[in-house]
Request: fold
Amino acid sequence: MLHKKGQSLGGLMNKQTIFSGIQPSGKLHIGNYLGALSNFVALQNSGSYNCFFCLVDYHSISEDYLPQEKKAMTLDLLANFLAAGLDPKKSSILLQSQMPEHTELAWIFNCITPVGELERMTQYKDKSQKQVKNINMGLFDYPVLMAADILAYKATLVPVGVDQKQHLELTNVIARKFNNRFGQFFEEVKPLWTNFPKVMDLKRPDKKMSKSEPNGCIFLDDSPEEIAKKLKQAVTATESGAKSAGEENLMLLLSHFGKADEISHFTQDQTTGKLKYSELKATLAKDISQYFTEFREKKEGFLAKPEYLAEVLGQGAAHARKVASQTLLEVKQKIGLL
Ligand code: ADP
Reply:
């Protein structure tokens, strides 16, 4: 048993519910860690919320992918969650495709969502441009499924990046439409923006670090050698002696991964114009490698136990189903199906 007997995973009824998801669509990088995953762990460990963290694999198949890679990506993401500190005793960790309640609710929401609202979504437009040969219905309907993911648990807080702002607003549009038509049921959902600034691409520091540009990423399971090599190649060139975006990015990483004396040393060097990039990069390489040593070991351990990973998802789904199936039952009653 993953959940201790007598301990209600859902916690106290008066706690607010948090829902967030990450797509299993590639390796996680330190931007994902600082901007999302570490935040999930902090929210979980605060003990103040009922937490649902979802591996949103149905979302991920709306983008180009290779079927033979998907399952491994899902298990890799789950191992990342667990190694970073998400704990199935404290949070529900669930796989979207094991939760038919999400897709059922999405269909019901489809029937109250104006097409015009979806046509406005900038992420749909961006992604359509990236995969012109695969502009599928799932890509278009993505925000409706996201609304269903969140509202199935009547979550009111959603930790996401600002790129999801428009989708969250749509979740509230759908919730209001539902309430107006069928009677008050869903509460307003609020974003919990992460307060960590965006980590930038090491090679192109004017762009955010993103797995779509692997050369500019430090991945969570990169070896110390890989981390050192990538940092060595990080772009720091300055124009007219001004602080460059690359330098700022390295200093941002130092502020999180560095030791106090290193931070003050390099900040002072920066102000006095004596900053040596090679020294900063070597320090960062050591610090980031050390920071993720335990993470890498834990992750390997989890990946070596696929039966445990399956158990985590099974229990997460069982707990989540209790909540989501009740929501769906009440929704079906409200819309006149039951
Ligand atoms: P990617 O751009 O690598 O595909 P995703 O869009 O899947 O990343 O983002 C997953 C989560 O990680 C989101 O909450 C997003 O806001 C956060 N995130 C992604 N890239 C960064 C970054 N460079 N800095 C900070 N947070 C990030």
